[in-house]
Write a structure and sequence with these properties.
Elements lengths: L2 H8 L10 E4 L4 E3 L2 E8 L2 E7 L5 E8 L3 E9 L23 H14 L4 E4 L4 E13 L7 E10 L18 H35 L1
Antiparallel strand pairs: 1-2, 1-7, 3-6, 4-5, 6-9, 7-8, 8-9
Length: 208
């Protein structure tokens, strides 16, 4: 029997006061019996731009998504403080005798459906996390245990804001219409005056 299996069944691994839990947005709740390791990662990416004198300046910093790696264990025979207390299912509606298998099925479902997860740890709580990788080790000594390593990544949700469109400027149609009519009237009167002058001149030449 492996050290991990012996430790779990004999009580050698004592779970922490606050166990690592995964709570899916679909209502799935999964709690590890014990956590062997956690790796919390976060980074920021500065944006650099060269300027005319050849130097580089930083004008903005982009906050990268948080990352979390969990090495956890769920057993079909969890450690019970009181012998009279029965083991609970690892997931709602599961069988206490198949806690490990039910937990693995829930993890696969959460990853395949890209379900957003809230992760609770003693160090920090995370929201809007996605399972990106999973790895399970199982052999003859751990057939009753789910020994799983998970990689999770924060899913940043973009937000948008509705803004009212500006009101269009009012058109002064009355002024434009009047100006057009005035120009047409002036042009007609000018043509008529020239025609009258020409007729008067012809009458003098031929009538005279």
């Amino acid at each position: 029997m492996s050290i991990l299996a012996a430790g779990l069944e004999a009580g050698g691994l004592i779970p922490s006061a606050k166990r690592v839990t995964l709570t899916g947005s679909d209502g799935t709740v999964l709690e590890f019996d014990a956590t062997l390791s956690e790796t919390h990662s976060g980074s920021s990416q500065p944006t650099d731009h060269p300027v005319e004198d050849g130097s580089v300046v930083t004008d903005h910093v982009i906050d990268q998504p948080d990352k979390l790696e969990i090495h956890g264990v769920i057993s079909n025979h969890p450690i019970l403080i009181l012998a009279s207390v029965r083991a609970q299912p690892s997931v709602e509606g599961g069988d206490p005798a198949t806690r490990a298998e039910d937990a693995y099925a829930a993890i696969v479902r959460l990853q395949k459906t890209a379900t957003l997860i809230t992760v609770g740890t003693r160090l920090q709580d995370y929201e809007d996390m996605l399972i990106t990788d999973r790895s399970v080790t199982r052999d003859k000594d751990t057939s009753e245990i789910l020994d799983v390593q998970l990689s999770l990544r924060e899913f940043k949700i973009a937000t948008s804001e509705d803004v009212d469109a500006p009101e269009p400027a009012e058109k002064n149609d009355g002024d434009k219409t009047d100006q057009g009519r005035k120009q047409t009237t002036d042009a007609t009167a000018s043509v008529q005056a020239k025609a009258d002058t020409l007729l008067v001149g012809l009458a003098k030449v031929f009538g005279g």
